[in-house]
Amino acid sequence: MTLKNAPLIFFTDKKCDVCGESYKPVRAKQRFCSTQCHNRYHNTERLKKTTEFADVLRILQKNHEILSNLWKAGKKKILLAELLKLGFKSEYITSFSQKERINFVFNTAYRLIAGEQVEIFKISPNK
Ligand SMILES: [Zn+2]
What we know:
Blueprint: E1 14-15, E2 22-23, H1 35-72, E3 77-79, H2 80-85, E4 95-97, E5 102-105, E6 108-113, E7 117-122
Antiparallel strand pairs: 1-2, 3-7, 4-5, 5-6, 6-7
């Protein structure tokens, strides 16, 4: 099929997903009125992802700091309620050992033991 005998397809006007302006699309799945709006959309999406990652990392850093500080202070056992009161967010871990039931936050770790207590570990990189 040559361009000459190609069927002419007219798309109905659309509203740009970024600026909301009405435009005539040249492709069926077109979402933006211009390259500028296309780029603006993707830059915003990238920033959202970066921000989300930074938020998770900040929580993990705080969890690591809490466990590290307790370990440094010689406190190897703490009530779970006390740990949570320090701002520890138990749902944020970096890995988990199912066999030993240990939750890792980078090189610090903890596990629930009897009496609603938490046992704290630290893996020394110089070990
Ligand atoms: Zn636009």
